[in-house]
Write a structure and sequence with these properties.
- The structure is a single chain.
- The chain has nine helices and no strands.
- The N terminus is likely disordered.
- The N and C termini lie far apart (72 Å).
- By secondary structure, the protein is mainly alpha-helical.
Length: 204
Amino acid sequence: MPTSPPFRRDRARLPAAERRRQILEMTTKLIAERGFWGLSMQDVADGCGLTVPGMLHHVGSKDSLLVAVLEYRDEQDARSLAEKLGRPAHRLWADGRITLAEVCDAVVRRNAEQPEIVRLFAVLEAESLAPGHPAHAYFRTRQRRTLEEFAALAEGVVDDPRELAAQVVAMMDGLQIQWLREPDTVDLVAAWQSAAGRLFAATT
């Protein structure tokens, strides 16, 4: 009777930075599928051809791995956003020529290209509402930073930049949830452009 071949671990030695990137990408994929609470360190290690101790040597604990994944994705998105806007990543928010509407349009177009990553953040953001979740502080800080950055882009354009920033974030998050649930019927970019026309009506 035929049996499945035993799992063989990849013994190839990768440079530390490349191995860490491999682990982060595999973890991203698994969290998007199962959420953080369904994440198995064994599955991550197997997907990378490593033992669990060998994997943890590169990333530390499960909690530190989660935060590393989120920070890694933020770095990737920031670089992509800067490329879409044709501006250096380190000067993106300091460039007075850029508008909030332009940034939001670029963010939505970027997100429409990576539903798995958007799902990852949506799942973890919901799970992290629990104070004991390892990403609770990360998402709280991230939300504050996003609101501050968006409000700064709307400064001098509307009477209450902070209120506009909060409305923009709420609309983007809500539309993304609808799109993730019904990807065949919701066009994320078109839905955002329609909403943006109303949100930014007072800024034109």
